[in-house]
Amino acid sequence: MSTHIGAEPGRVAPTVLLPGDPLRARWIAENFLEDATCYSEVRGMYGYTGTWHGLPVSVQGSGMGQPSMAIYVNELFQDYGVRRIVRVGSCGAVTERVALRDVVIASGACTDSSMNRLRFHGLDYAAVADFGLLRAAHDAASTRTDVTAHVGLIFSGDSFYSPRPELMVPMVEHGVLAVEMEACALYTLAASYARQALVVCTVSDHIVTGEETTALQREQTFGPMVEIALAAALAETGS
After folding, report:
1. How distant is the alpha carbon of residue 78 from its chain centre?
2. Is 205 a catalytic residue?
3. Cα–Cα dist 141/32, whole Å
4. CA 237/CA 39 separation, integer angstroms
5. Which of these, 65, 33, 73, lies nearest to 49 by C-alpha position?
6. How far apart are CA 136 and CA 104, in angstroms?
7. Cα(237)–Cα(239) distance, rounded to whole angstroms?
8. Among 27, 101, 107, 143, which residue has the least CB neighbours within 10 Å?
9. Which of 79, 112, 158, 205 is labelled catalytic?
């Protein structure tokens, strides 16, 4: 039983979807998983386990930002033997190549966080997705007509309200599609534990155009992203 999840051994599946919002975790469990049961309500960060097409799947809220998410990822890998984690979150588009409600499948994550600099003694580490999960998510997204998906770089920021937004300009010029707050730490921790990880995000707001979704829409209307993530995890589990 871990400190922040508190589930009994065996209650968490080898495959975990990881939304930041615990209410989105509950919505996913209620709308996509069969026979879902709650294994954790510690700090209001809900965790559920059920099945999807016969595959055991858990969904665990992780909070906002890399430090919060890292707590849950460390415990999932270390204490519950989780094999793969797919983050299903929201992101902000930073280029007009990406539209509101598009899905971004993150091949790699840039960051302004000091977490990796501390880990790698000041060196820059390339935090990238597991290729099997990435390929499976791309394949799943390519069959859909209800959503536009992009594969590319994402930026994991430590500040939601950045005091230096101009620093994103060279990032966009070098291919960054969107910003969020968790991917870099997830990819780094997965590499550290020799596990699989992927980040699939829905564009919830557009920094260039000013478009945005509501809190309720972010919680309950990002279904295509969830189905792409589940399909990718299922494909890798069966491979």
Report:
1. 19
2. yes
3. 17
4. 22
5. 33
6. 14
7. 6
8. 143
9. 205
